[in-house]
Every structure is written in structure tokens, then in C-alpha cells.
Amino acid sequence: MTEGKRARSAFICYSFASEGSSGVAETLVVRNISDTALWAAYFRAEETKRPDALFRDPYAERLEDGKGTEIARTIPEGQSHAWAWVTRTYLFDQFIRAEIEAGADLVVNCAAGLDARPYRMELPGNLQWVELDLPEILAYKQERLSAEKPRCVLERIAVDLSKVGERREVFASLAPRGKRAVVLTEGLLIYLAAEDVASLALDLAAVPCFERWIFDIHSPRLLKMMQKNTGKALDKAGVPFRFAPAEGPGFFGLHGWDTVQAQGLLRVAARFGRPPFFLRLLARLPEGSAPPWERRPWSGVCVIEKRRTPRRG
Questions:
Q1: Cα separation, 37 vs 111, whole angstroms
Q2: Is residue 4 scored above 90 in pLDDT?
Q3: In sequence order, what are the residues at sequence separation of 6 or more whose Cβ sits closer than 8 angstroms to the Cβ of residue 164?
Q4: In which element (H, E) is residue 303 found?
Q5: Residue 242 class from Cβ within 10 Å (0-12 exposed, 13-18 middle, 19+ buried)?
Q6: Is the distance from CB of 11 to CB of 137 less than 8 angstroms?
Q7: What is the pTM of this model?
Q8: pLDDT at site 235
Q9: Which of these, 217, 249, 277, 289, could form a disulfide with 259 (CB 3.0-4.6 Å)?
Q10: Dist CA 283 CA 223 (whole Å)
Q11: How much of the chain is helix, strand and coil, in % rounded to 5?
Q12: What is the mean pLDDT of residues 110-131?
């Protein structure tokens, strides 16, 4: 067995909890944070099948390999919010395109998971794209996509981003690689504690060429709702939902970043008629003066920019 196949076997295989009174081992469909990448790939695969798809990802079904489907069908409400997953991907695509058009020459995808944008998006051939993630998931993806050619200069670097020294070393090695870099953290921050997000924000701000950062974020009210349902299944795998700052994207203002834009998933999804009817009605309510993350359950995709001059008190 090749190393790539061994990695795929280790990544795809099931873990088992202790046997219950029935004598049958309980299968944990989500074993760790990397398995959420399979779940996300399932939604991209389903979207691709639609005639009115907001994007096309012809690699998603191959990457989720049935395991993402099982996760979605097994955990509580695992398929209930497809519109949100799809809209998140759509907004990331839009913001990435805008950053490249504005001159970004390096994309750094932290916790890249099974993202296939270097293969599916129209990208400049000289664009540098670096994927950072754990070695097992990168090996799995490399095997699944080994016959495909990326549309830009793609590199994968195995790193445990939770280890501060390890990630700082990788970030420092990327500093000379581009003049204007954009960082992606899609589907990552919600699993981190606030202090860990703050530490990551400071580390990213310390790299001269890391100018912009695209991420998704949730409000505290939405986090509580998520923790009651899907969150319980993820708790068992040791990957609970955690990060939802009351300040919304303003949280990052304390750590060297200023908000450029924040797009709510619901309003964007409602333009395409994707959410259930009652949520489409909710999306039509006036914005009001207070930020949406302070007024209602909210999630969105944000673009922030590294502060060029110190903020004055």
C-alpha cells in the first residue's frame, strides 16, 4: 500500500466509542475537526448538481467520497442548512476574485481541508496559492486529485496550526513569497477559543505581506442555537462550536485589523431563494441602526484589512 493510500485509509476509517448495553459499538461519524471538511464537500457536491448552482465544484463528490454524505445524513440537522454552507462558499469565491483583481499575488488558505478552488476557479497562472493543514488530510486530498492540474501555482504545507511556534515558522517562510497576500480561514474560527483566535490574528498581522483576511463568523445568539442541535454531535468528537464574539468582526480591531466588509449569509441566500420561506421573510426586515450580529442570530463572511497606522485612543 502506498503512503497516500495509507493516509486515505486512516482518514476515512471509522472510530468507535465504547460498547453500550446492546453490545454494539457506536460509530462516531465525526471523529475530529478534519472530518468537517468531508461534510463541507458534501454540500459543494450537492450544489454542483443543481441547474441553478451558484458555483460548480466537479471535485467535491470525489473528495467527500460518501463519508460527507453520511455525516450530513446522520448528525442532527446535518442537512437542514445547506443554504448557509453554499452561500458561505459563494461569498468566499466572490471575495477571493475581488482580492485577486485588486492585485493579490498570494493566497494562504489556513485549514484548507478539501477546498478545490485552485482547480475549479478561473485563476491567474502565476498566482501563488498555499494550502496549510494537517498532514493526513493534505495527503488524502493529494491522492484524490493527483491526476488533476491546478490553474495556479499550488503548494501544500503540512502544519498543525494550533501549535503557535510551528505556524509562526510557516508564516515567516511565506513572508517573502508575495507582495500582497490574502489569508483564508473558511469554517475554522468557530472551533477555536477566543484567545486562540486573538493569537492567530496577531500572528497573521505580524507577516508584512498578509494584508487581507477572509473568514466566516457567527453571532452569540446563533452559536447557542447551533450548540443545542448539531453542536452536540460535534462535542462528542471533541470539536465543539466555540467562537462567536459579541463584537462581531469588530473583535479583530483589538488585534491589528479593521473591517472592510461583512456580508450576512441569510440576506445573500435570500436573493437566490435558497432559505426556507420564513427565513426569506426574516431577511426582508429592515437592517436597523445596530449591527445585525447584535440584534438577531446571524452569520456572515467578512473581509478585514491589516491596520496600516496605529489606532489612536
A1: 9
A2: no
A3: 199, 203
A4: strand 299-306
A5: middle
A6: yes
A7: 0.89
A8: 80
A9: 249
A10: 19
A11: 45, 20, 35
A12: 98
Taking alpha carbons only, the member of 239, 244, 195, 175 closest to residue 215 is 244
Q: With CA atoms as reference, report the closest residue to 156 among 175, 137, 180.
A: 137
Specify the CATH number for 80-306; select among 3.40.50.150, 3.30.479.10, 3.30.1490.110, 3.40.30.10.
Answer: 3.40.50.150
For the chain, what is the mean pLDDT? Answer: 88
CA dihedral sign, ordered 61, 64, 70, 76:
negative
Residue 288 pLDDT:
77
Question: How many Å apart are CA 307 and CA 5, to the nearest integer?
Answer: 44
Cell match 467520497: residue? 65
Q: Which residue has the higher pLDDT, 113 or 9?
A: 113
What tens digit of pLDDT does each residue of 210-266 get? Answer: 999 999 999 999 999 988 877 777 787 677 889 999 999 999 999 999 999 999 999
